[in-house]
Automatic annotation (TrEMBL):
Protein's organism: Lentibacillus populi
Full protein name: MFS transporter
GO cellular component terms attached to this protein's record: plasma membrane
Domain Major facilitator superfamily (MFS) profile: residue ranges: 16-395
UniProt cross-references to SUPFAM superfamilies, sorted A to Z: MFS general substrate transporter
Any one GO MF annotation of this record: transmembrane transporter activity
Domain of life, per lineage: Bacteria
Main subcellular location of this protein, as a coarse class: membrane
Database matches in Gene3D superfamilies: MFS general substrate transporter like domains
């Protein structure tokens, strides 16, 4: 009797779903844990703001390389091994980083950690689609993606809270121990792959698939939008701690970290955007999301903390609306090799994270918060207008 995929009624469905949700939660908490700590690193290591931001952007660069390399290996060597590798590689640096007094070594360990983090996103969605029944995979995927947003939010808030009351080293040790517990749980719960079939394609064929998409103008516009959205969104959140800990606010690190609770709107925004797009059209709701993001960013120019918090919440709602629909449009625009098209969008998305983390350092240094907000708020709107102009040209020609 042939084996069947797991449904929501099977215990193994929940073992897979809980395992990947826990792994996702920790991986994304690890990725973004340093974001509220950047001013702390400036003081502790005597480095510049731009150098401090490398603790996030180098992690993302490692992640981008890992997505390509580990994604290729995952298609040939299996899924669960890379999910487990991702957790092991995420935990070990948290034990080592507090022992170093060199910021260069800290950056090197964060780079390696970023590479290891990629094992989970490189293998998890393929693993879910292979092992879980098509009627149930949507639930498992939704829980996995929600854990991404939840982990990123909790990682930021938790490290800020612990650092404010104890130290950043204590925060890292706490993450290490939490990761170790999650690692043991995943090792015990995660079932072996039953339907994995190794790919026989060469690495050059994978590269050909990537190049195929890079020749598609419509997809290039989508990839560009992914970069722009994340560039603006990450830029605001990266330099927010410096802004709010300075005059006239002088907020504590814990108070600044609590601002990251606004990410909770991402959990609501993504499914709501999908529902609205189904009823009102993807393009219309995506435009609404981009404009909402811009409005939220401009609200942070206020000298009122309450208005800034409202602005951050509005920006989160707008960003996750626009991002989720942009990601969904990738498979619609791609005519072939849809998997590699989604991977390219993920790479573009994280390029935006890396650029938003460090490339905006000179803007912050020379123009302060006002210049940073004006650039990050205007850029998505300008890019939106550019996309609309480009997409309207074939219509005019046809007419």
């Amino acid at each position: 009797m042939p084996q069947r995929t797991y449904t929501i009624k099977d215990s193994y469905f929940w073992k897979i779903t809980v395992s990947l949700a826990l792994a996702s939660f920790f991986v994304f908490a690890s990725m973004y844990a340093v974001q509220p700590l950047l001013p702390v690193f400036v003081d502790a290591f005597g480095v510049s703001v731009s150098t401090s931001s490398l603790s996030l952007s180098l992690t993302i660069i490692g992640l981008i390389v890992g997505l390509i390399v580990l994604g290729f290996l995952s298609d040939r060597s299996g899924r669960t091994i890379f999910i487990k590798f991702s957790l092991i590689g995420s935990v070990i640096p948290f034990f080592l980083i507090p022992l170093t007094h060199s910021f260069i070594l800290l950056l090197f360990l964060r780079l390696l950690q970023g590479f290891a983090l990629a094992g989970l996103p490189a293998a998890s969605l393929a693993y879910l689609n292979e092992e879980i029944d098509k009627r149930s995979v949507g639930v498992a995927t939704a829980l996995y993606i929600s854990s991404n947003a939840l982990g990123g939010m909790v990682g930021r808030v938790l490290t800020g809270f612990i650092t404010d009351h104890y130290s950043w080293e204590t925060a890292f040790y706490f993450l290490a121990v939490a990761g170790l517990v999650i690692l043991l749980a995943v090792f015990m719960l995660l079932p072996k792959s039953r339907f994995f079939e190794p790919s026989n394609l060469s690495f050059s064929r994978d590269i050909e698939a990537f190049l195929f998409h890079l020749k598609n103008p419509s997809l290039l516009l989508v990839f560009g939008l992914g970069i722009v959205l994340q560039f603006s969104f990450t830029g605001i959140w990266t330099y927010l701690p410096f802004h709010l800990q300075g005059e006239p606010f002088s907020l504590s690190l814990q108070a600044v970290s609590n601002m990251f609770f606004a990410y909770g709107l991402g959990v609501v925004g993504s499914p709501l955007a999908g529902w609205l797009a189904g009823n009102l059209g993807l393009r219309r709701i995506r435009i609404f999301g981009i404009l909402t993001l811009a409005v939220g960013l401009f609200l942070t120019l206020s000298n009122s903390v309450v208005v800034i918090v409202i602005g951050l919440c509005v920006a989160c709602l707008g960003f996750f609306t626009a991002h989720s629909l942009t990601a969904a449009s990738v498979t619609e625009q791609a005519t072939h090799h849809k998997g590699s098209a989604s991977s390219l969008y993920l790479v573009a998305y994280y390029i935006g994270v890396a650029l938003g983390s460090s490339a905006l350092g000179p803007v912050w240094l020379h123009t302060g918060w006002k210049g940073l907000v004006l650039l990050t708020g205007i850029l998505p709107v300008v890019y939106l207008i550019f996309v609309m102009v480009v997409q309207s040209r074939p219509r005019k020609t046809a007419e």
